[in-house]
Amino acid sequence: MELQTTIYLVVGASFALYIGIALWARAGTTSDFYAAGGQVGPVMNGMAIGADWMSAASFISMAGLISNMGYGGGLFLMGWTGGYVLLAMLLAPYLRKFGKFTVPQFIGDRFYSKTASTVAVLCLLVASLTYIIGQMTGVGVAFSRFLGVTSETGIYVGMGIVFVYAVFGGMKGITYTQVAQYCVLISAYIIPAIFISIQLTGNPIPQLGLGSNIVGQDVSLLHKLDMVVSDLGFANYTTSDAGGMLNMFVYTMSLMIGTAGLPHVIMRFFTVPTVAAARSSAGWALIFIGLLYTTAPAVAAMAKTNLLRTITPGVVMGNADPYAADSQLVYEERPDWMKRWEKTGLLKWEDKNGDGRIQYYNDKSKSDAFKAKAESAGWKGNELTVNADIIVLANPEIALLPNWVIALVAAGGLAAALSTAAGLLMAISAAISHDLIKNVFVPDISEKNELLAGKVSMAVAIVIAGYLGLNPPGFAAGTVALAFGIAASSLFPAIMMGIFSKKMNKEGAICGMLAGLFVTLFYVFAAKGIFFIKGTEYLHLIGGPNSFFGITPEAFGAIGACVNFGVAFIVDKMTPEPPDHIQAMVEAVRIPRGSGAVTGAH
Predict the structure, then answer these.
(1) CA distance 6 to 330
(2) Residue 386 is inside which H or E element, if any?
(3) Tens of pLDDT along 83-125?
């Protein structure tokens, strides 16, 4: 069967499944809409968390960034998985025991203040909308290739699909849809990885194939990759860091604590019936997430190897001189996959030296020796632009895998982006309809009107995210990293202090959240533009790019969190303590049920 027909059939079948599940499990009450009635089992909830968690950034973009960054890209693996452990161990059980639907509800009740709740809603909206921009970018990339349209048209199609099953299904529909999406996306990630690992190394386990020898050569995949990228002027694949060790450390911390403050993941722990089920579902989710995250480094390295093998075949699969005139691929002889991706605008070639061949190398290299070799070979600059977000989706095409595998990857990429977009929209909807309208502005609103408000706010969020997704501030994973930084600087400290500091008062929490959010947004918007709108950057006000000790905007959330904690504790010391009943409530939430029988306390 022809490739495009296979893609339409597989992707169409997956969409029919998602929409069918959403309609079957559509929400009829606010409890269904916000928390799926609280009756989801731990294993299914673990799968739903996995799908919620593994967004377009994880599925589509993360391996692409690791493929570009090499070892330095490992910060995404360390930050996101480490953050999940932090969330599962330190926050989720306590929040579940507290028994509120949403993060702003917890902050409002714990800090006995509607103002605190409103500030938390503001922080949540900024973080979640930024996160959705990354998902829409991924949706656009996936749809553009597999429907043969531009990435802008792809985003419009994605907006329509998300609208149908998120608005009608609510949390109940989204939960069961995400279970199906997890099954699709994990199959779509691992099956091609197994194929390609066997193809390149003869080892069917990608994680082991990463360290195995290339078939027919007495050299390991990683060592060969190091040699080839170094010859082409790129940083050493296995030792490069991300902007220096300080930035890499801060970036990892920002992703970790941002993970623990992400509202759409925290909400998942309210869909299970008990605290024990919340802990159990956290464990299952870690297993389901680990399947993809341990495979990602292998996918990244093998995709990079296959891309270089396509463009410089004799160099990767033999020992040809990369600077020889016949080492590079003749453009007219390029494979079909390159022609297909060129239509999307995400793969571009420009013949700078007029030789009709593709020169792919790092023309920004600071090595004088490399520059001299490139000039003597007649190279006039890098000619191939490969968007990092296409690496995973193009991987099975580059490796010439069967059509059904390519179609499965298409369905998996769309499942990853759409599942997280739905979870984020759910968090936005609950924040506006439940935490703002019902708890602050219109306390006596009927359940029917509250549901309507939630669905309208969801629809508006889809339109805003789609618009911003047309001109994203970076690759999908980079944009998502900004969202994690915003959550890290604003919500995480307030949640931590709310659980573990019974003396922290409302004034401290409010000032801390606002200070952390403002400092982080000021630094991010300086580099990326105000609300990520191109042309509104103001780098001159902060002394140029990465002016704060070389820390990038994506990594700045950890600094914002330090500001949040610092301001909160200073203000707390200058203002009255929380009421006694609040302090007693915090103590009760922290103590496991039944501990009195063990300790003899009463």
Answers:
(1) 30
(2) strand 384-386
(3) 888 887 778 778 777 776 678 888 999 999 999 999 998 998 8
